[in-house]
Structure formats: structure tokens, C-alpha cells
């Protein structure tokens, strides 16, 4: 560790649609919480942020409203986004909150200039000395250990909550980038719809996500999985439990997965042939929580016919990449999208 970093409070943030991670230079990942803010609409105050707000989701009384400010990869609620960012930075800095940190913030690749400015302003509001914005797919590629500076094509697919970002990077620049609004949330929504259509069962988002974690998959599993799901019967309005299998959930997830695969195909069609050849040799790297869906790598490999690897820490690739920039000014200069 660089001796100076003992005192360093420089911070990298992955402002994800589902989760926010914070990395402190010299300390590593210091915070990883859901990107959620709960407002008290009667008093106009923030009731809770992050994990605490997540626990309120779906169970809030009328006057508490939980929002995910970046839900679709755009900042739907500036005020909430700022409150969240400020809260997380202060929490991560703890007792050194009086220092003026340098901030590297990973932002969704499709946010507008106005949104960028809003994020940057929020950074300065926590008294940052410098604020650097970096595209999340670039940070993900660095965090996943891809040789982004080489003159060769690297394809990264970051499947988060709100968006799937597909990027092709060469010579530290983005050659192709697309943000598709089909990712983890869409998978949860597809499970909710399937449960309603097939079993007449209403379930909430959290239950749908739990089903995806516990028995979700993208291709047939060696050993089948099943679970009992509690919900409310659509017609009778009463609580009901049904037994669901991995096969059910594969059917449910088919449409969102098809859309993601289609977008990857389009990306491969649009990039220059040399880069395409590089990707055939090196393979595609998956990051983001969605990469953890069972056998998603196999499904992509089978459908597209090229090697697919899941990054070692898919949920933290972005923040690790952004964190790496804190210690490497040269890299930061090369890739910061200011
Ligand atoms: P973001 O960067 O948009 O905040 P993340 O990379 O943190 O998103 O990923 C969050 C998404 O990953 C959520 O939709 C979550 O349901 C999904 N996810 C996390 N773990 C798993 C898993 N084991 N299987 C399937 N999906 C997962
Ligand atoms: Mg992300």
C-alpha cells in the first residue's frame, strides 16, 4: 500500500440501478447497498437510504414512498439520486468526512449531459476536491481485468438491475456501446407475469427476485430445483402456495433472455470485422448481478457460438474498476468521460 493512501479518503462509487458500491482507496469495498431511498411524503424528509430502505419496500405505509432513483439507467428522480449519493459518500467516509476526497463515479452509459452535471454537482456537494465520471461498462471491463488498452476488441456485457450494457472496447475507448432496458428487473417482472398467467398467483417484486435467485436458470440444470411460492390468488384474493420448478422459471425468463441475446448478436454484427474476430478468440466477459443467473454463460455460448466467461466478482466489477482508477491517474485520464 502506498503510505499516502493510509490517509487517503479518495473514493470510487458505482451508482448502479439496483445496488450502489463504494470503494475507498487503500481500504477496498466499504459499502454495498441497494440504490433505494425511502421518503416520508408527509414531512418531506428522507426516512431511510440503502439497505434500510430496501427492507421497507412493498411494506411501506401510505406516507412512505420508496424509490429507486436510477431504476432504468436514467435518473428518474434527481433529488432522490443526490440524497442517496450524499448519504453513501458520508457513510463511507465515516470519521474522515471532513476531508475533501477525490471521487470517481461510475454512471450508466446512457445518462444525459444534464444528468451527468447533476451527478457531478452532487459530488461537489459532499465537498469533493475532484469529481470524475466514468462509463460503467468501461469500469466493469477494467474491474474484470480485461486488457482494455490493447489494440484488440474486448466485449463486456454488464447485466444489472435496470439495464444490460453491451460494450466493445479497444485502445481504452468504447468502439460500440448499447444500453438495453432489459436486465434483472425485467427478469423479475417476467416471473411475476408467468406466476399470474400460469398459477393465477400474484407475487411481489421481492418474491419474484427470490425465485430467480433460488431456482432461476438459463439452460437445463443437472439437478432440477423447486420451491414453494406464497402469493395471493388472482380471483379468490386469498393467500395461496404453489410449487414451482426450475423449468417453470426457464419458461418465464425466456423472453428477457431472448432480447438480451438478440442485442448481443446485433452488437457483433455492427462492429468492424477485425474486432469481431478478436472477440471470437478472446470471448465475451459477463459482469453485473445478472451474470449470476445459473447457466447464463452456457446459454449465450450455445446461442451465439463463442466463448463466454463470467467475471470473478460480477457484482463488484464496476466499483473495482473505478477504484483502480483512483490509484492510476494515467488510466483515469485515458478513460474518464468528463
Ligand atoms: P446495477 O449495477 O444495475 O445496480 P447489479 O450489477 O448490482 O445491478 O445487479 C443487480 C441485479 O442482479 C438484480 O436484478 C438482481 O436480481 C440480479 N442478481 C443478483 N444476484 C443474482 C443471482 N444469483 N441470480 C440472478 N440474478 C441475480
Ligand atoms: Mg452496474
Task: Name some characteristics of this structure.
single chain, alpha/beta, Nucleotidyltransferase, domain 5, Actin, Chain A, domain 4, 3 domains, disordered N terminus, binds adenosine-5'-diphosphate, binds magnesium ion
Report on this model:
The structure is a single chain. By secondary structure, the protein is of the alpha/beta class. It folds into three domains: 3-138 and 317-335, Nucleotidyltransferase, domain 5 (2-Layer Sandwich), CATH 3.30.420; 147-182 and 257-312, ATPase, nucleotide binding domain (Nucleotidyltransferase, domain 5); 184-252, ATPase, substrate binding domain, subdomain 4 (Actin, Chain A, domain 4), CATH 3.90.640.10. It has eleven helices and 16 strands. It has helices spanning 51-56, 78-93, 113-125, 136-143, 184-199, 205-215, 246-270, 273-282, 296-304, 317-326, 329-335, and strands at 11-15, 19-24, 28-34, 37-40, 45-49, 64-67, 102-107, 130-135, 154-159, 164-170, 173-180, 201-202, 226-233, 239-245, 284-287, 308-310. It has a five-stranded mixed beta sheet, sandwiched between helices. α5 (184-199) crosses α6 (205-215) and α5 runs antiparallel to α7 (246-270). The longest helix has 25 residues, at 246-270. The chain is flat and about 60 Å long. The model is unreliable at 1-6 (pLDDT under 50). Adenosine-5'-diphosphate binds next to α5 and α6.
The whole-number mean of residue pLDDT values reads 93
CATH class of the largest domain: Alpha Beta
- The number of helical runs is 11
Number of domains: 3
The amount of helix comes to 25-40%
Q: H/E element string?
A: EEEEEHEHEHEHEEEHEHEEHHEHEHH
The general outline is: flat
The largest sheet, given as strand count, sense and whether it forms a barrel, is: 5 strands, mixed
User: What gap, in angstroms, lies between the N and C termini?
Assistant: 28 Å
Count of extended strands: 16
The CATH homologous superfamily of the largest domain is named ATPase, nucleotide binding domain
Q: Ligands in the structure?
A: adenosine-5'-diphosphate, magnesium ion
Amino acid at each position: 500500500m502506498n503510505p499516502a493512501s493510509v490517509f487517503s479518503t479518495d473514493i470510487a462509487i458505482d451508482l448502479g440501478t439496483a445496488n450502489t458500491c463504494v470503494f475507498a482507496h487503500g481500504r477496498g469495498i466499504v459499502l454495498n447497498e441497494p440504490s433505494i431511498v425511502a421518503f416520508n411524503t408527509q414531512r418531506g424528509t428522507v426516512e431511510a437510504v440503502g439497505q434500510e430502505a430496501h427492507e421497507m419496500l412493498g411494506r411501506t405505509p401510505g406516507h412512505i414512498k420508496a424509490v429507486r432513483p436510477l431504476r432504468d439507467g436514467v435518473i428518474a428522480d434527481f433529488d432522490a439520486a443526490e440524497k442517496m449519493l450524499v448519504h453513501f459518500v458520508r457513510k463511507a467516509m465515516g470519521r474522515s468526512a471532513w476531508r475533501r476526497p477525490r471521487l470517481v463515479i461510475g454512471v450508466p452509459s446512457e445518462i444525459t449531459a444534464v444528468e451527468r452535471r447533476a451527478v457531478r454537482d452532487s459530488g461537489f456537494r459532499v465537498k469533493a476536491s475532484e469529481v470524475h465520471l466514468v462509463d460503467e461498462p468501461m469500469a466493469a471491463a477494467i474491474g474484470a481485468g480485461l486488457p482494455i488498452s490493447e489494440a484488440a476488441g474486448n466485449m463486456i456485457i454488464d447485466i444489472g438491475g435496470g439495464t444490460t450494457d453491451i460494450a466493445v472496447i479497444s485502445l481504452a475507448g468504447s468502439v460500440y456501446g448499447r444500453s438495453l432496458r432489459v436486465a434483472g428487473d425485467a427478469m423479475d417482472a417476467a416471473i411475476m407475469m408467468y406466476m399470474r398467467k400460469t398459477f393465477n398467483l400474484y407475487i411481489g417484486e421481492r418474491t419474484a427476485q427470490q425465485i430467480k435467485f433460488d431456482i432461476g436458470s438459463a439452460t437445463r440444470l443437472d439437478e432440477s430445483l423447486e420451491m414453494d411460492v406464497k402469493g395471493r390468488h388472482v380471483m379468490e384474493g386469498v393467500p395461496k402456495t404453489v410449487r414451482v420448478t426450475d423449468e417453470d422459471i426457464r419458461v418465464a425468463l425466456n423472453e428477457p433472455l431472448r432480447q438480451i441475446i438478440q442485442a448481443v448478436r446485433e452488437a457483433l454484427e455492427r462492429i468492424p470485422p477485425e474486432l469481431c474476430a478478436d472477440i471470437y478468440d478472446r470471448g465475451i466477459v459477463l459482469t453485473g448481478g445478472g451474470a449470476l443467473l445459473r447457466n447464463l454463460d452456457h446459454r449465450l455460448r450455445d446461442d451465439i457460438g463463442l466463448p463466454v466467461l463470467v467475471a470473478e466478482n460480477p457484482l463488484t466489477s464496476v466499483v473495482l474498476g473505478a477504484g483502480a482508477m483512483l490509484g492510476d491517474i494515467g488510466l483515469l485520464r485515458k478513460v474518464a468521460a468528463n
